[in-house]
Prior knowledge:
Elements: E1 2-7, H1 15-21, E2 25-33, E3 38-45, E4 58-61, H2 68-76, E5 80-82, E6 87-91, H3 92-97
Antiparallel strand pairs: 1-2, 2-3, 4-6, 5-6
Amino acid sequence: MSIRLTRKPGQKGTRRLQLVYGDKLVCVRYRYDEAKRKRSKTVELVVEEREWMPDDTLVRVRVAWGEKELGVKVKREGGRWLSDVKLWELPYGKAVVLGLGERIVRDWV
């Protein structure tokens, strides 16, 4: 089976499907099965959206004064202490690996 044509919403061949699916429609594809001599029209839909952050995005994390062991782990993973705001800065992916997702300071992202 091969894909010969991909259309974006609003282009010819997608208008009726756009009425049905609205903003959830990403594209329409025309697939051809030469063995069966059939053409299929398929749709790609958005079924869920949520926030996502690339792993290399720098985030700021709060580590309390007495959590020395955790501060050492953050530093070992490449974290940098920002004394002016009293927060650690490190890549998002490393913060998640260390289990610090709940400690990310969202105001700085």
